[in-house]
Amino acid sequence: MDTLTHIVLGACIGEAIAGKQLGKKALILGAIAQNIPDIDFVASFWLATAQDVMAHRGFTHSFLFVLLLTPLLAYCSVKVFKSTGMDIRRWLLFWGAQIFIHIFIDAFNAYGTGWFEPFSHYRVSFNTMYVADPLFSIWPAIGMVVLLSIKPSSIKRMVWVKVTLGLSALYLILGIGFKLFIDHTVEQEMRSKDIVSQKYFTTPTPLNNMLWYIVAQNDSGYDIGYRSVFDKNKGIDFHFVCRNDSLLKASANGEDIDRLLLFSQGYYAAQLWHDTLVFNDLRFGEQLGWATIEPKFVFHYFLQYPDDNKMIVQRGRFAGWGKAAIITFLKRIKGI
Predict the structure, then answer these.
(1) Strands 221-228 and 276-286, how do they pair?
(2) Residues sharing a CB contact under 8 Å with residue 111, sequence separation 6 or more, in sequence order
(3) Per the omega criterion (within 30 degrees of 0), is the bond before 118 cis?
(4) Can you point out the beta strands (E) in the chain?
(5) Predicted model pTM
(6) Closest listed residue to residue 5, CA positions, set 133, 143, 108, 173
(7) Helix, strand or coil for residue 288?
(8) Which of 67, 87, 121, 155 has the fewest C-beta atoms under 10 angstroms from its C-beta?
(9) What is the C-alpha to C-alpha distance for residues 147 and 170, in angstroms, rounded to an integer?
């Protein structure tokens, strides 16, 4: 999830666990604690982009990291915050819960989370929530603002915590339900159109969990389409994207390709943009794909120009978005 979501979620969780002992300090410490796994961003200062995409959400998002760091932080907190009266068990719960919840909710979006590092490089991705979803984040954000404004002694504090965290949890569950519905619809549609797929995935489009992006893999490429939970039309309009493995075999940049292939979890396509060879990771979606013919992919890596790949995940997320694109997007969510 995005940093802001982790901040507001961490603040509310901090209040729930240690508000009585720490007062409003629980909000600040909670926001800090919730963001600890993202310390891996510092690796981007010295790693090449193809290495950095694998380093992010790697070891610092693993169960081993939780187990190693939690007792260390708890021990230090007992020494630093002696006057609070919080014992080692409460501090273990505080730090452990925050770090674990961070790596847990990160696994719900497409990037993938290295829960089992360093023993396995497998990335866990449930694909039920976009990396930044305001309908998930708004509730703990409201809760944090309210908690900062009311007295530490107020009995209303725990009510606000329960309501805001409960609404976010409910939205998370709703997303799982939507995914099960979309997956069922996709499987029916592929059978009706005789689409033979080795594997497929569905994941939400930006900022919502109602319009879903679909990728079905076959021998030579992928059938890609979109489906809203509000669509009345049962059909899905797929368009085909060729994988173009031959283009990658001809590339001299084999080391970056190997890393990107591992990162993409098998969902990739090579393309030539004029004279530039581009590696696309399909999991991050298309740029305005629900409204544009033959759109570019959000995650595109210039194999011949590795120095031009800064901010690779972020740069294509909202490319081309404007008033007209937003209106079209909202209409597509509404259904066809």
Answers:
(1) unpaired
(2) 56, 57, 123, 125, 131, 283, 284, 313
(3) yes
(4) 199-204, 211-217, 221-228, 239-242, 268-273, 276-286, 297-302
(5) 0.94
(6) 133
(7) coil
(8) 155
(9) 21
